[in-house]
């Protein structure tokens, strides 16, 4: 039975690249929504995941990592992240316990200092440091911003995540249940499918190629056998990148299809046929029309 003092609200996760925002969001929701990679700038859009229990509904907004942009896509990503920390109920800043405060962190701290919203600092990856270091790290951030709470966590090992949920609930207003109990994201399936494909490409490619890749899902519908047929384009910037993505005798793209199909079948709960094509769109990250066509446009968020 739902609590009469039911709480709900929108909570933005913000931090520099590779601090573990997507890992944390997936762990809190209990299912994979955002893609994860050891490469920086994995998340490009705002990704919403929904946590619901008898006490509250929390809509988490995962954002791109704050970095120094080198192209129009990067500018979109940073703008998206800062926009997502406006007009919400709470902001979570996630930092890496094993790294000193960097330029990206300072940009966020400057932004939060002027932001009147409640804010919680999550110090992630505490499993990588000695416990004696923790107090110094906490004090260094508290000197910058007056956080409402500071919680040391490990998103990967799921340490102190229940404390995170309870602290968030304590800061949210009484409100309605915006989404059904079993809904875990507000993104269309096309979007999540494209992200799963892109995650596998990030895993198998190296150096600059991951940042030059986009995925555009063209079709998702059952075929004549009743199997979900999905067709998607993989966009790269140069012909040489196309060859790398396809791989020798098509081996790399075959691995991508196998692993992505497994995740997609888990998401959809049905058998999937996945067809991928690799296409070259020169310098697409700096072309506004191509960015918009691929879903990277600030006006849409």
From TrEMBL:
User: Which GO cellular component terms are attached?
Assistant: cytosol; plasma membrane
Write the record's keywords in alphabetical order, separated by commas.
Answer: Cell membrane, Cytoplasm, GTP-binding, Membrane, Nucleotide-binding, Ribosome biogenesis, RNA-binding, rRNA-binding
**Chain spans, region G1:** 15-22
Q: Does the keyword GTP-binding apply?
A: yes
Q: Name one GO biological process term.
A: ribosomal small subunit assembly
Span of domain Era-type G: 7-174
User: What Pfam family is a match for this entry?
Assistant: MMR_HSR1
> What protein family does this chain belong to?
Belongs to the TRAFAC class TrmE-Era-EngA-EngB-Septin-like GTPase superfamily. Era GTPase family.
Q: Which NCBIfam families match?
A: era (TIGR00436), PRK00089.1 (NF000908), small_GTP (TIGR00231)
User: How does this chain assemble?
Assistant: Monomer.
Name the chain's protein.
GTPase Era
Q: Which organism does this record belong to? A: Ignavigranum ruoffiae
The gene from which this protein is expressed is era
